[in-house]
């Protein structure tokens, strides 16, 4: 990744005087899966990605491999897909309070796209979209901030950026929402015209995008990949299929899926949350259960 970014150099000429230029490195990565970039959590890679998000200088030197990379103005965008279960399994719990995830916008979707004919191949593409992308790619330079945009951003920050996400894992993310909003405002501006100007309508559009994404972000954390949760789902299905299951049947079923020492705790938790309900107790003190409402 570093090698490709190092090669992605752009020498921007600006101003009216000869010799005024700025060298920067800009790149976008679109891996099909996040695991292709990070198959397991890598602290060094995460720290590097935060540097690129902030467009801060980066250097890498290795004497053995004779590596000497200096990137003064780096910029890296990543658009990657992942499943919620893999995301929560790959990222340690403490990562949500650190820099990388506060610089990440999560777009949650569980839509299922159904085609009329799954064998039909769609080879058409929008010529207008291709034209616009080429124009956007050719844009270079610093944006002008109109007074109405400045006022809108400042007033929004003074009001503590309402409405803020309230999920516990998004508290660190909230600290950088205004940065996301500014970057989205630039996207809204170049989508409308080639003028490097950001004004109030771009702020409004960017805020609507951000709030829409944040509305669905908490759904990311509803899916858990823990062994206990998967076992409970299977137990609920098992009891529902049995109509009524004895404690002995449930223990035998659970012992094939979770450690023996956790079975009693899991059954107690399922009863407490009414995933399963005690229907009766026989003369030997054995409980019977049915699926909860």
What does this structure look like?
The chain is elongated. A hairpin with a 7-residue loop joins strand 1 and strand 2 (21-29). The chain has helices spanning 2-7, 34-37, 43-53, 84-90, 99-102, 127-138, 147-158, 171-174, 177-192, 200-216, 227-242, 247-255, 260-272; strands spanning 9-13, 21-29, 58-62, 67-71, 74-78, 144-145, 197-198, 245-246, 276-281, 287-291. It has 293 residues and is an alpha/beta fold. A three-stranded mixed beta sheet has the order 1-2-5. The mean pLDDT is 89. The chain folds into three domains: 1-82, no CATH class; 136-224, no CATH class; 227-291, Orthogonal Bundle (Arc Repressor Mutant, subunit A), CATH 1.10.10.10.
Compact summary:
This protein has 293 residues and is of the alpha/beta class. The protein has 13 helices and ten strands.
Q: In this structure, how is the largest beta sheet organized? A: 3 strands, mixed
Helix content: 40-55%
What is the molecular shape?
Answer: elongated
* Rg, nearest Å: 26 Å
From N to C, what is the helix and strand string? HEEHHEEEHHHEHHHEHHEHHEE
SSE topology sketch:
Elements: H1 2-7, E1 9-13, E2 21-29, H2 34-37, H3 43-53, E3 58-62, E4 67-71, E5 74-78, H4 84-90, H5 99-102, H6 127-138, E6 144-145, H7 147-158, H8 171-174, H9 177-192, E7 197-198, H10 200-216, H11 227-242, E8 245-246, H12 247-255, H13 260-272, E9 276-281, E10 287-291
Parallel strand pairs: 2-5, 6-7
Antiparallel strand pairs: 1-2, 3-4, 8-10, 9-10
Helix pairs in contact: 7-10, 9-10
